[in-house]
Structures are given as structure tokens and as C-alpha cells.
Specification:
single chain; 163 residues; mainly alpha; membrane; Doxx family protein; transmembrane; transmembrane helix
Length: 163
């Protein structure tokens, strides 16, 4: 079935669209609902080394770059890696700004908190895509070994035929 064969590709496209959309919003001041939180978080993570006017654009480039790479299936292994790093960093406001994330207790999230916690789904999807990359690598290594064995056997046969 076609859907079964392409299910991970659909997952990759869905994540790519989310990244492209959310990253694209960050290019336009005050269009992203998480812009202020993103800037404040980057400031905390970098100890204010990156000016906030630049940091949001760097994040926009990162996110749209990830989105494009996922959509067009480019540099898949490295794209998954940098996306996972980004996703992990999106949880840092839970530590830096808990007052913005939680209402009365840890089970009562604000809208920003829900925005962050939903990233668990993206992390899980990245795990699925990563396992696919690992399976492809194992198959490639296995195929290469078989090819090398065939070449070495053929080489031995040729060597004995020449004598």
C-alpha cells in the first residue's frame, strides 16, 4: 500500500510545514505569538551575547532552514539532529520562565506552556524519522559488504582462471 510505504515521508513533510510556518512568522516582528518568549530564552541561553534584534532572525533562519530541508528531504540525518537540538532547547523556558508556562500548578499550563509541551509530539516524530535513517544506513552498509564480498570472490575466481 502506498500510504504504508510513505508514512514517514508524510510525517517529515508535516513537521517541515510546521517549521516553515513558525519560522517564517519570526521574520516579521510581532507576528509570532512566541516571539518574546523566544527572544528572552535566547538571551538566557546565550547570556545576552546575541542582540535580540539579531537573535530572532537567526532563529527564523534556523527554523525555516529546517522546514525546507525536511520538505525537500535534504541532509536528512543532520536535519533531524539539528531539529532535535532545537526541540530540546524549546523546553528551556520551563526552567527559565515557569511563571509564563504554568498557571496554578504543573498540570495547569498557560497557552505558551501548551505551545511548548506540544513539542513532545515533534520529538517523538523525529525519533521515528531517526530510526528510519538508522535502518537505511544499516541496509547500505549491508549492501556494501555484500558487494565487496562478491567482488572479492569474483577477483579470486579471475585470479585462479588466469593461472
Amino acid at each position: 500500500m502506498q500510504l504504508e510505504k510513505n508514512k514517514n515521508r508524510y510525517l517529515q513533510i508535516a513537521i517541515g510545514l510546521v517549521y516553515l510556518w513558525f519560522g517564517g512568522l519570526k521574520f516579521f516582528s510581532k507576528h509570532s505569538p512566541a516571539e518574546d518568549l523566544a527572544i528572552d530564552t535566547i538571551n538566557q541561553l546565550t547570556h545576552f551575547l546575541i542582540p535580540m534584534e539579531i537573535s530572532i532572525y537567526l532563529l527564523a533562519i534556523w527554523e525555516t532552514g529546517v522546514g525546507l530541508c525536511l520538505l525537500f528531504n535534504l541532509f536528512k540525518k543532520n536535519t533531524i539532529r539539528i531539529t532535535a537540538v532545537h526541540m530540546i532547547l524549546t523546553f528551556s523556558p520551563l526552567i527559565f520562565f515557569p511563571q509564563l508556562i504554568f498557571e496554578e500548578n504543573v498540570f495547569s499550563l498557560t497557552l505558551l506552556g501548551q505551545y511548548i509541551i506540544k513539542n513532545i509530539i515533534i520529538l517523538a516524530a523525529l525519533g521515528v524519522l531517526w530510526s528510519e535513517v538508522r535502518e537505511e544506513e544499516k541496509k547500505l552498509v549491508s549492501d556494501t559488504r555484500k558487494e565487496e564480498e562478491e567482488h572479492s570472490v569474483l577477483g579470486l575466481i579471475k585470479l585462479f582462471k588466469l593461472r
